[in-house]
Amino acid sequence: MFTIEQLGSWSKTVEFPVTRDRIAAYAAATNDLTPQHADGTVAPPVFAVVPGFEVMAQATLGVAPPEAASRILHGQHDIHVARPIVPGDLLRCRAQVIGVHARSSGVTVTTLLETTGAAGEPVNEQYFTGFFRGATHSGNAGRTAPDHRADPQASADVPELAVTQHIDTDQPRRYAEASGDFMPVHLDDAFARKVGLPGVIVHGLCTMAFTSHALAAGTGLGDPTRLRRLAVRFSAPAFPGRPITTNAWRIGGDRYCFETVADDGAQVIKDGLAEYTA
What we know:
eleven-stranded antiparallel β-sheet, about 35% strand
């Protein structure tokens, strides 16, 4: 059984000093050629998960039984950006589990990660949904992440944007080193197969980072710091050495819904939402 007594309780706060080199390393690990990201002037949007990754993971795994820990997959991620992250920031991060819900094939745990600056000003908040495959739990508690599904009719037409990107064979290793996420399903082929996967899979957040700069380049919106929300549902794993294509549709103002598919047609990301300031 999952432990629900901890719902709504904040973890300890951790501090993370941001450097230009750390930002540039993350951009390189996600093949992000955006000039401001590549030179470390401004952090890519999905870099937001790096400062609080450990505390977010600890909070999520802390409510799960030990035998379920190895079966966790990243189900959804939703980043709400108050301001970009820049070199010199001293970020403070804390997390709390806000929901545990039983599903037909497993259990979802929703965790809220809050990041503030040195003066306490909001920088971003994120909703992480972990899916524990094959786990069981009786009943539901708390809440889920905010909805980010678009009207299905919005993606019925030919996409306004289609960007194909290639995932390198060494992408999982590079991403692990830049992000601090060393989960074995991304690095150990034998382990991945042992837990029922066909082999090593790409980090979901790495795939999400790919979509963020595909959208920025393809929409023509220019300044990458205009992004205010990026939300995805990971519906299938991406694999090293293979291409992905992100298709997007404008749904009003500077808002886009999007999906990402693999070269075999598998939908890697669905229910994608990107919102930019005017």
